[in-house]
Write a structure and sequence with these properties.
four-stranded antiparallel β-sheet, seven-stranded mixed β-sheet
Length: 121
């Protein structure tokens, strides 16, 4: 099993930045691709970004390209999502997830509890 815990969410004004972190434990972190998803009130869960096991490959949903950056540090068992130029439509609960076969936007097998990101206008 893999346990994932997100942190770094909060309230920010439009145009601001946040950095989300996700720490993993339980299994070998470096063997999994990692992803970030988000779910806004009344909407379906949406894929945001993913990074492969080595960190050499990344993938983003079109709406965040150029604004968000996913990265990972396997020595710290941590994946990050740097979010810049935030917009009110980015408001959602953000979830960290791990997959052993679904990179970049397929089925993810382990999920964190989520962290709230609220962008005010």
């Amino acid at each position: 099993q893999v346990q994932l815990v997100e942190s770094g969410g909060g309230l920010v004004q439009a145009g601001g930045s946040l950095r989300l972190s996700c720490t993993a434990s339980g299994r070998t972190f470096s063997s999994y691709a990692m992803g970030w998803f988000r779910q806004a009130p009344g909407k379906e869960r949406e894929f945001v970004a993913a990074i492969n096991w080595s960190g050499g490959g990344t993938y983003y949903v079109e709406s965040v390209k150029g604004r968000f950056t996913i990265s990972r540090d396997n020595t710290k068992n941590t994946v990050y999502l740097q979010m810049n130029s935030l917009k009110p439509e980015d408001t959602a609960v953000y979830y960290c997830a791990a997959t052993y076969s679904g990179y970049p936007a397929g089925e993810y097998h382990y999920w964190g509890q989520g962290t709230q990101v609220t962008v005010s206008s």
